[in-house]
Design goal:
Number of strands: 4
Strand content: 25-35%
Number of helices: 3
Radius of gyration: 17 Å
Order of helices and strands: HHEEHEE
Largest sheet: 4 strands, antiparallel
Strand order of the largest sheet: 2-1-3-4
Length: 143
């Protein structure tokens, strides 16, 4: 993929994750209002991302580079942790996002784009984009 495509995909993934966080926040507020720990929400729609597509690895990807494999991220530990806080640099600007899927973060760690660099990954207790608390730093690009 070209760098512009990589950046466009990252932007869309960030927007997707924001929508998931918004849904999660709404569901949490409903549970809070009703005083329920489990509300019978309908199942999520059948998203294309839920379908597994098996592709053969390219020759380049199959080779890999020794020592270049990203560290494996551990799963979140609820209820203290409910999201990953990802800090990255895009087009020279430092930005951040909240994700829940470690596979997406692993993909970001292997992304080789000139205008993108992953800076750190933390687990957080997320309440809203303005209200969250770092639980543990899992990975940091700085030595």
């Amino acid at each position: 993929m070209e760098p512009r495509q990589d950046i466009a995909i990252l932007d869309l993934l960030r927007l997707r994750e924001e929508e998931f966080v918004r849904i999660w926040s709404c569901e949490e507020e409903i549970r809070h209002l009703l005083g329920l720990s489990a509300y019978p929400f309908p199942p999520p729609p059948d998203l294309p991302s839920r379908h597994r597509i098996r592709r053969k690895p390219s020759a380049e990807a199959a080779k890999g580079e020794p020592g270049a494999a990203p560290p494996e991220l551990r799963p979140l530990r609820p209820p203290q942790e409910n999201a990953y806080h990802v800090v990255y640099q895009r087009d020279g600007l430092e930005e951040d996002s909240f994700l829940t899927d470690p596979a997406v973060i692993a993909t970001l760690m292997t992304l080789n784009a000139p205008n993108f660099a992953l800076l750190s990954v933390e687990t957080v207790q997320f309440r809203s984009p303005e209200s969250w608390k770092v639980v543990e730093t899992l990975w940091n690009a700085a030595p």
